[in-house]
Amino acid sequence: MQSDSGKELLHLHISQSLGVAIIEGAWPQGSSRTLEAIQDGFDVSRTVAREASRLLESLGLVQARRRVGLTAQPMSSWNVLDPQLINWRLHSTDRENQIYSLTQLRLAVEPAAAEGAARLASVHTRAQLLPIASEMRRTGEAGQLDEFMELDIAFHSLLLRGSGNELFAAMADLVAVVLQWRTEFDLMPAQPKPEALDLHEEVADAVFRGEAQRARDSMEKILEEVRETFDDAAQTRAGLTRWARSER
Questions:
Q1: Are strands 69-72 and 62-65 parallel, antiparallel or unpaired?
Q2: pLDDT per residue over 71-114, tens digit each?
Q3: Do 182 and 198 contact (CB within 8 A), yes or no?
Q4: Which helix (H) or strand (E) holds 55?
Q5: Rounded CA gap, 226 and 185, in Å?
Q6: pLDDT tens digits for 161-178?
Q7: Is the pTM of this model over 0.70?
Q8: Which site from 40, 75, 132, 215 is most exposed, i.e. has the minimal number of CB atoms within 10 Å?
Q9: Cβ–Cβ < 8 Å for 153, 176
Q10: What CA–CA distance (Å, rounded) separates 200 from 93?
């Protein structure tokens, strides 16, 4: 008999497989699939198929209708800020578009969040940033990327949650997905750039001292480095693709 945790993992696996099919267009928008087709296609019970369909519906990827089944929806209906959907897109062929959108969103939001934290965060919250930035330097210089990633997530999440803006705070999980993805797909250098480490300490110091404009400016510089990293990676991939084609 399958455990509850096994059923949970199974329905998540199925929903991701179907979700990525919609994202990539393999399940075209406007076309429908029944629960029975999902049951047969994945050889699972109706209960598991139903749980998978509910998750897809909650993300706006499908619309469920009686006697029709699940109809794939256009992107305009997707809950594009949901961290789970973002994670699926990052694991699909739509990865580069998702990276571009997320980077643009971070460029717009995180400098304002840093400024807000410098103005509005509690003394306790502001003081927490300094040791986190210090540990980021230690782990970054040692090439301990997994530990560095966890600290990076804590740093940015603390800023977003301490910004005084509830919408910014709600983006903390979203940013965590992006930072995890950078490490998972080797978009982090073996050692973070010294400039990036300096700037995290600069943001922490500015927020601690309540210097809002300096906090904003330093965060903008951090995100500019992020954008440059993604641009470099995209150019490298494009170069490798051209090389592979020339070798055929």
A1: antiparallel
A2: 999 999 999 999 899 999 999 999 888 888 888 899 899 999 99
A3: no
A4: helix 46-58
A5: 14
A6: 999 999 999 999 888 888
A7: yes
A8: 40
A9: yes
A10: 32
